[in-house]
């Protein structure tokens, strides 16, 4: 049987290897996770919110690992894939050979960075859903009653999101491609905003080719479980030559 120290090290190894199968058996079904930006979130929420950040993980240099009763206290120096370094302390609470709670202690700068990475993951999944024409995947990133200012009329979207997406996706033949450029994210407490330039292209069932750059702005809010998109605004400039035509051929 592995010791609790070995099991704790395996949790960090899972992040280094991006291998969820290494950590899943270690976390109890009633596992909870706390940090400066998380208040005892569930196992399910932990995997939805925290695990996607493993893609940014590099190495974890464990400096101290101490066992105290049912707790294992770890201090480490982490280096992410971009080369940035930060030091954290985590307390793993065990019941038998499974972890029932993790408490992470880190500063506000790291907390803001963690929120930004989580929001970027939400936007990446939203964009992937658009490209795959996957209504369920897109809707999973969005609050149940979002405010939509889309390229298509009306001024404010008044159709349920799933119906709106399904109808729009159905106008295209084959997959879509949407690239987000210059994405910027700023979070403050439970509220965040993001903006980017988006390049959409695909082929309509009529045979017409869509190839368009537009401006994208999102408002997000953090609920008890996860960040969700609450507002989405798409726009293009219009020509100021009296024609009032949309400027559809602009490129960054």
CATH topology group of the largest domain: Nuclear Transport Factor 2, Chain: A
Strand order of the largest sheet: 2-1-6-5-4-3
pLDDT averaged over residues = 90
Number of helices, counting only DSSP H or I runs of 4 residues or more: 6
Overall 3D shape = elongated
Largest sheet: 6 strands, mixed
Q: What CATH architecture of the largest domain would you give?
A: Roll
| Count of all domains | 2
Protein name: Nuclear transport factor 2 family protein
Pfam families: SnoaL_2, SnoaL_3
InterPro entries: NTF2-like_dom_sf, SnoaL-like
What key attributes describe this structure?
about 250 residues, alpha+beta, Nuclear Transport Factor 2, Chain: A, 5-stranded mixed beta sheet, elongated
Gist of the model:
With 252 residues, this protein is of the alpha+beta class.
């Amino acid at each position: 049987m592995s010791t609790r120290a070995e099991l704790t090290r395996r949790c960090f190894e899972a992040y280094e290897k991006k291998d969820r199968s290494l950590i899943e058996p270690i976390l109890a079904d009633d596992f909870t996770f706390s940090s400066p930006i998380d208040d005892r979130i569930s196992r399910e929420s932990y995997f939805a919110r925290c695990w996607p950040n493993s893609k940014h993980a590099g190495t974890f240099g464990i400096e101290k690992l101490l066992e105290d009763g049912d707790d294992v206290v770890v201090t480490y120096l982490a280096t992410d894939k971009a080369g940035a370094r930060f030091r954290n302390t985590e307390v793993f609470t065990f019941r038998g050979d499974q972890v029932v709670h993790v408490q992470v202690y880190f500063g506000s700068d790291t907390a803001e960075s963690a929120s930004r990475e989580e929001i970027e993951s939400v936007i990446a999944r939203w964009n992937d859903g658009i490209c795959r024409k996957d209504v369920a995947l897109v809707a999973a990133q969005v609050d149940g009653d979002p405010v939509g200012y889309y390229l298509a009329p009306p001024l404010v979207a008044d159709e349920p999101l799933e119906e709106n997406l399904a109808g729009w996706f159905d106008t295209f033949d084959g997959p879509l491609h949407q690239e987000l450029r210059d994405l910027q994210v700023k979070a403050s407490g439970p509220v965040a905003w993001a903006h980017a330039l988006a390049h959409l292209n695909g082929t309509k069932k009529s045979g017409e080719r869509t190839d368009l750059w537009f401006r994208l702005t999102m408002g997000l809010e953090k609920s008890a479980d996860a960040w969700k998109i609450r507002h989405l605004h798409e726009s293009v400039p219009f020509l100021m030559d009296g024609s009032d035509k949309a400027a559809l051929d602009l490129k960054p």
